[in-house]
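Example protein as discussed:

>
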Amino acid sequence: MPGDPTPTDIKLHQKSRILEITFDDGARFELPCEYLRVFSTSAEVQAAKERGEVISGKEDVNITKIEPVGSYAVNLQFDDGHDTGIFSWGTLYELGRDYDKNWQDYLKKRSGAGFGVYPVPPPPSGESSDADSPPKTVSLLYFVSLVTRLGRDSESCEIPGSVNTVGELLDWLRQRGKPWDSLLQDNKVNVTVNKQFAKPTTPIASNDEIAIMPVDPLQS
């Protein structure tokens, strides 16, 4: 539509599955491919939403091709075969601006539909100065009651380059939804980084070993 912000740069980061878009008003958004897939403007996706269906299983989806549609939109083609979503500049801007609300609504609907704990959260959106920072791989260890509640005692985890402190890591993990969001509150866990007790401001780096344990070992 006339007056809509117009992209000045569109960049696909295939390794991190992020579409980075900069607009002429200065806004910049990092939109996960999964987010764009489940919020596709295609008739197929819109019809599924009208039927109350929740699109799931798109955690690893990637964009394979971006085709311009006139001077007002792009067609995003995904590696799961979905290729009918045409995203206008206005739609992309709204998806970036409303990312946090949209994504939390999606997680609630996904959980309510019985799909369980969200396995891997997407990288954060927004105007991050760390857009091009490479992801980090860290080792996460869970102890005591967390093992039962989270269903694992350890994992090797790739986290976004913008996650640089213990507090940011806990925030990122809580985006997985239930039960992560309640179990990993700052006042409920102690954290060590490479066997040293850490604070929320303690920095983390690739290959760090990060242990998380409940403050109260009997918490349920």
Q: What stands out?
A: The chain is about 25% helix and 30% strand. Residues 77 and 83 are 4 Å apart (CA to CA).
